[in-house]
Amino acid sequence: MKKLRKALLPVAFILIGAGAAFATNAAKNSQSTETGYYTDGLTGECKDSPEQCSVSGTSLCTWNDGSSIHTLYRNGTDCTVQMFKPVN
User: Fold this and answer.
1) What's the whole-model pTM score?
2) Distance between alpha carbon 22 and the CA centroid of its chain, in Å?
3) Disulfide engineering: 33 pairs with which of 49, 52, 69, 87, CB 3.0-4.6 Å?
4) Buried b (16+ CB within 10 A) or exposed e, 60-83
5) Rg value, the chain, Cα
6) The pLDDT of residue 43 is above 60
7) What is the pLDDT of residue 17?
8) What is d(CA 51, CA 38) in angstroms, rounded to the nearest whole number?
9) Is-contact 46 79, C-beta < 8 A?
10) Which CB contacts under 8 angstroms, 24+ apart, belong to 36-39?
11) Residues 13-40: b if buried by 16+ CB within 10 A, e if exposed
12) Is residue 57 within 8 Å of residue 86, measured between CB atoms?
């Protein structure tokens, strides 16, 4: 029984380490980014920006076009769902 336990302990550590590595990789990949859209102040249209934003987070994603700072939104059709700065 003691020999079996000594043999299984390293295997258990290897499996736990591999599982942690996969979980970390999955968490990094879940932070996908999308193009952020802003509302044009003159036309009211929803236009795309050069910024990439995330659909989750805590800090709002913004873009400075040189004359004003725009809050960025998801989906270029209605500009209603706010986006967030991606976590690096």
Assistant:
1) 0.62
2) 17
3) 52
4) ebbbeeeeeebebbbeeeebeeeb
5) 22
6) yes
7) 59
8) 10
9) yes
10) 36/61, 36/63, 36/72, 36/73, 36/74, 36/83, 37/72, 37/73, 37/74, 37/75, 37/76, 37/79, 38/63, 38/70, 38/71, 38/72, 38/73, 38/79, 39/70, 39/73, 39/79
11) eeeeeeeeeeeeeeeeeeeeebebbbbe
12) yes
CB 46: neighbour CB atoms within 10 A?
16
Which two three-digit tokens encode residue 29? 């990949």
Phi, psi of 13 (to 5 degrees): -65, -40
pLDDT value at position 59?
94
- The tokens for 17 are 């380490």
